[in-house]
Design a protein that fits this description.
Layout (H helix, E strand, L loop, with lengths): L1 E3 L6 E2 L9 E2 L16 E3 L11 H20 L8
Antiparallel strand pairs: 1-4, 2-3
Length: 81
Amino acid sequence: MYQLKLGSESFTVVDGPYAGKTYKPGQAYADVPPQEMGRFRKIKEEAPDSGTGFKQIRAEATKAKTNEGAAALAPENGEVK
């Protein structure tokens, strides 16, 4: 799997077998044009969710933990100093 390197802008291939294909930052691609390989970095392939919902539950737990930490740091009366 490949992903555009950090700071890279999206681009669309204009010729060859990949013509018309658009590549965007943050997206993972299994196949990239060999002539543009320098724009990409290799990434680990994520294991697919097995239907257990574990990834979603873990993401929600992490989000809740982060929000609790932010609330603990906020002033009680809501004032910003």
